[in-house]
Fold this sequence. Notes:
Layout: H1 2-19, H2 23-26, H3 40-44, H4 55-68, E1 72-79, E2 85-91, H5 94-97, H6 100-109, E3 123-129, H7 137-151, H8 155-162, E4 164-169, H9 174-186, H10 227-239, E5 243-250, E6 256-258, H11 272-292, E7 320-327, E8 333-336, E9 339-342, H12 343-363, H13 365-384, E10 389-394, H14 399-411, E11 417-419, E12 423-425, E13 428-430, E14 435-439, H15 445-452, H16 471-474, E15 478-484, E16 488-491, E17 501-502, E18 509-512, H17 519-528, E19 534-536, E20 540-542, E21 545-547, E22 552-555, H18 563-577, E23 580-584, E24 590-591, E25 599-601, E26 607-611, H19 617-630, E27 636-639, E28 653-656, H20 664-672, E29 676-680, H21 683-689, H22 712-717, E30 724-730, E31 744-749, E32 766-775, H23 780-786, E33 792-797, E34 800-805, H24 819-827
Parallel strand pairs: 3-4, 3-5, 5-7, 17-23, 26-27, 26-28, 28-29, 29-34
Antiparallel strand pairs: 1-2, 2-4, 6-7, 8-9, 10-14, 10-15, 11-16, 12-13, 18-22, 18-23, 19-22, 19-25, 20-21, 20-24, 30-31, 30-32, 33-34
Amino acid sequence: MRLTILLIVLSCFQLNAQSKPDLSYYLPQNTSYNQAIPTPESVIGHQVGEWHITHDKLVQYMQKLAAASDRVSIENRGTTFEGRPLLLLTITSPSNQNNLDVIRREHITATESNSVDTSNMPIVVYQGFSIHGNEASGSNASMLVAYYLAAAESKDVKDLLDNTVILFDPSLNPDGLQRFAYWANTNKSKNLNPDPNDREYREVWPGGRTNHYWFDMNRDWLPVQLPESQARIASFHKWLPNILTDHHEMGTNASFFFQPGIPSRTHPLTPKLNQELTKSIGNFHAKAFDKIGSLYYTEESFDDFYYGKGSTFPDINGSIGILFEQASSRGHIQESDNGILTFPFTIKNQFTAALSTLEAGKNMRRKILQYQHDFYKNARNEASKENGKGIVFGDEKDGAKTYHLAEILKRHHIEFHDLKADFDSNGKHFKKGYAYIVPKNQKNTRLINAMFETRTKFQDSLFYDVSAWTFPLAFGLDYSEDISTSNAGARIDILNRNEGSVSGKSNYAYLMEWHEYYAPKALNKILESGLRAKVGMKQFSMNGKTYDYGTILIPVQNQNKSIDDLYAFLQRVAKDSHIHIDAVSTGLTEGIDLGSNQFRALTQPKVAIIVGDGIRSYDAGEIWHLFDQRYDMRLTKLDTRSLNRVNLSRYNTIILPSGSIDATKKLKEWVQNGGTLIGYRSALNWLKRNEFIKLDFKKMERQATDISFEQRGNYNGAQVVGGAIFEAEQDRSHPINFGYKNDKIALFRNNTMFMKADKQSYNNPIRYTKNPLLGGYISKPNLDSLSLTVPFKVKRLGNGNVVVFTDNTNFRAFWYGTNKLLMNAIFFREEL
Length: 832
């Protein structure tokens, strides 16, 4: 009864606060505030929590605040895909502001020396808000936190700023925040309506969670593929903060969560003391929330396993990452199991957690600084035992994938070297200029271990996110561990791509191998210009060189360009795509001659992708990004709402990402008339159900034995494939595998669709091996079911064909190794 009364009181209090939100509702009243510091309302034109802050107004306020306060400095670290600034404020005492470079150098030195006294150093805290744009209470609270730190005149605040450098990121996802603010504000009523059925709480597809290309940026801290991530990772490594907080939201019926998460789901490479300190910091959060009467919980959900999240990435870098999850109003006011949940109340909780973090940092400063110092000291001791050992990675046929993995290492301040000379290791050939060596004896050796490990045994069988992310496997690169660093040449300080080139001018033909990552980009430019090109269906040799399956032939004669213009054009294409093109003077080869009908004419892809309601936005966004940012290819986005009214004859290829749609008849007619439909993941069920393609899946039947009602959630969760890496065999003569030099491939999988192989072996060009697990968690029954199944099939339907993939070949923009499977399905669609 007492709890019920409390919830009623809180609900009424929250509702009243929503009616008249002002600074007194949020800010501590035990201090005076400097009147020269602009309040949020004086700049943005409304009280915090009255409307959802748009990113442009948030930027405006932060700039005004920095101009008015000697406690605040501001920098723009770059822009988002939509051109919005990526701001970082540095908040500390005026004396520290005048000495920031020295403070930073001393802070970094403490991570590189065994004899540094950290006791008098400031602690560095990175506070980041709303990496998911529709979890907006964080960014809205950031204005209040920044104002409080700039304007409060109490001794406690001045002491805090004397002993703390705060790296303050008010919006980790500007594009998503802007998208969501527009939605919430345009659907707000004067008479606030808490009915969860109201349109205000039902965002249109894809919602504001993601960035411009619909990526979940809280999974990109380790891969660092997006501009927002690249900016914040640069700031992280520049400072190596001691604490990093990541402010999120969760379901409306929840309360407030702060870490630690479930103890058994912490990555084994994370020191035990990290979690103990996280729990000690949590005591400050609990005290602050007890004071204002807010409900909270800890250690009951979420985890610290995947190092690509904001709350976990710091843990492998000597910092302490902390996740905050506030129950979301998803608009301005909404009914919940805990009473009426108002937007100002969610903001107040985020504000409270931000301040309690700083309070913890101030009180635990010496202990946390010493922890970071010891983290790197211990890491150096571990690394010294690896002296003389290293990891080599590369692909003798593909410099681009090698470059892009090295690019990630560079962003993470991981040292790597060129090869002294070509060499072989574990049956793989590593070529100078196409491979790098990573010495194990270096500062970030623990991060190296996290990026390259292949782990298959775990304390827990449940994961909040993926359980494997081994980078050379993701990039489809050869690699070998524990090689001697005597093979290493010069350290790479400036990373450059391989130069593209054409070997000379030809009067006969040009040949372009298909191995390079950017070969599809080059081929698209060639076909787009109206030039004729063909693909070789078999291997052949000439001029002492063997050309693999999928080699592209560009004849010189009967083209729309003169001999000189064609040569100049191909030079531009080669340079832009970082590929090499060979000029040849004869059609006579060892194998298929260049005039053989085993060279098949290619047509320009005209590709569309189905997006909108019913489609998984993450999958669609990854494909859009691949076309737009990587391959410079036009991709038409067809919305499910208007698909039945679209003239599909404009396209020869349509991609259906994971999901389902309604335009069955129209799409089937288009395929039967000659189109190629490519379906991914759950779309396979829709394609099978609507008789586009016959698919046979293994049926999974489980019977729980000795599992209690309390244990049922964990039991069912253990059957989920949250994200692991598996080995498959490739028939390289099949067009879907053109451009791959090995007969095995690493595939990422996060579903339990086990597709049976065809009876005809040549119809199974990709097939999981008998023991396919390379890294990550999968239950024994699921692993047995996956064995010898297939992730790819193609079938004719009328004059067209249907291509299906059970797995995501474009996962999170860093799974470079399987991007070409999609490109092959598009460019060689008529030969599959």
